[in-house]
Specification:
- With 417 residues, this protein is an alpha/beta fold.
- Helices cover 53% and strands 13% of the residues.
- A hairpin with a 3-residue loop joins strand 2 and strand 3.
- Helix 2 packs across helix 6, helix 5 crosses helix 7 and helix 5 crosses helix 14.
- The protein is elongated, with a radius of gyration of 31 Å.
């Protein structure tokens, strides 16, 4: 059984490819069950965010698991292979440690990804696809992330995607305080972004969500109001800023809807930030005059601010991670020895039981206990010494020399030359 990880992220694939391989949260349990049921993997965890889709699995058929990922999304392996990375056990651990520590994020040192990985692990656990191998990997991952956060300043002065959205807005409009802002969705990302915009005291905050109750609950935190997604066409023209992040598999806002909104606004500009993967806003919307449309990839330059100042901390984090990777690979090696240890103990137990049964029979026949004990001890000694003695008495050359050295080490022997 091999531990492997493969996937794609904002370093290896454009948004147009990432959105085709994304897993909406509600589909993850079924996808995990399907993967394991297909026998392409025995254990599996899927991490799917706006910047990455990664599959961690314990499998004897890495190629089969890779093919499953492409087939699940209706793609051929040839279509996605140029964007994918595949990592063996040690590199998979290193990658997981770096991702959880915020070293592989668009925003260096950001903390949201750690929560997303924890959510992915909980989902796999509930789906019954988190076995002992992946559980060991992710428990180590969480411990490493904690060490990096507590022992380095890798997250210091980090400019989040949420803050970057506000900065972009302020490059287009003079003051957020004069703007009406619409948030589409009511998940964690929208809550983070809304917090940053609310700090600028916009003229109006509205949350549009599929379920009105959830939207109202989020809007209440910022003194705003809520509408349903069905009401968007009638309300879109009221807003200067639109930020969207939902789990929809199809665009929520199309070019036609925005064209009508611009006309109703008499061509006053709209700033639109689409943080969803797959995208919530049709790409063609960006072609319209008076519309400033940005995606998660477009704000990469802004979140680089402060990155140089954190580079030293990142180097310190990499040192911690390298050490922890060594610990993890040592754990894997010990884990691989467990079946052999179990078989060795089973064989010793069989030898003990056979010798004991023979001794009990001798006692039942009236043989003096002293003699029975003598025979028992000799029999056990002969049985236990037979394999190493046979190994020492056979073979030649380098292999025999290695066996001699190994047996001497195992038994802590230092024979005179």
């Amino acid at each position: 059984m091999h531990l492997v990880a493969f996937g794609l992220n904002h370093h290896t694939a454009p948004l147009a490819i990432r959105e085709r391989l994304a897993f909406p949260a509600e589909t993850l349990p079924g996808a995990l069950a399907q993967l394991v049921d297909s026998q392409a993997a025995r254990e599996a965890t899927i991490v799917s965010t706006c910047n990455r889709t990664e599959l961690y699995c314990a499998t004897q058929q890495p190629d089969a698991a890779l093919a499953w990922l492409a087939n699940y999304h209706g793609l051929s392996l040839d279509e996605v292979r140029p964007y994918l990375y595949q990592l063996d056990a040690a590199e998979a651990a290193r990658h997981a440690f770096r991702v959880a520590s915020g070293l592989d994020s668009m925003v260096l040192g950001e903390t949201q990804i750690l929560g997303q990985i924890k959510d992915a692990v909980r989902t796999a656990e509930r789906a019954g696809t988190l076995g002992s191998l992946l559980n060991g990997l992710f428990q180590k991952t969480f411990a490493v992330a904690k060490d990096v956060r507590s022992q380095t300043a890798v997250g210091a002065s980090s400019v989040s995607m949420a803050a970057a959205g506000v900065r972009l807005t302020e490059q287009i409009f003079a003051s957020v305080g004069e703007l009406k802002v619409l948030f589409i969705g009511a998940g964690e990302m929208i809550e983070l972004v809304a917090t940053h915009y609310a700090a600028r005291n916009p003229a109006c905050i509205t949350v549009a969500n599929r379920t009105l109750e959830r939207g109202q609950a989020l809007a209440a935190q910022f003194g705003g109001n809520a509408i349903t997604l069905a009401e968007l066409p009638d309300h879109l023209h009221h807003y200067d800023v639109v930020v969207s992040s939902t789990a929809s598999q199809l665009p929520i806002i199309g070019k036609g809807m925005v064209e009508r909104a611009i006309k109703a606004r008499r061509h006053r500009p709209i700033f639109m930030l689409d943080l969803a993967v797959p995208r919530d806003i049709e790409a063609e919307v960006g072609e319209l005059s008076d519309v400033y449309l940005y995606t998660v990839d477009d704000i990469a330059g802004i979140v680089e601010v402060g990155q140089q100042a954190r580079s030293q901390a990142a180097e310190e984090a990499e040192t911690i991670i390298a050490h922890r990777v060594g610990e993890f690979t040592d754990w894997l090696k010990r884990r691989e020895s467990v079946p052999l240890i179990r078989a060795l103990r089973d064989e010793a137990e069989r030898t003990r039981r056979n010798a004991l049964e023979a001794a009990m029979k001798q006692l039942a026949r009236g043989t003096p206990p002293e003699k029975v004990l003598e025979v028992l001890s000799v029999q056990l000694t002969n049985k236990l010494m037979h394999p190493p003695t046979q190994a020492l008495s056979s073979g030649s050359g380098a292999a025999h020399d290695a066996q001699v050295a190994l047996i001497a080490s195992l038994y802590r022997l230092h024979p005179e030359s």
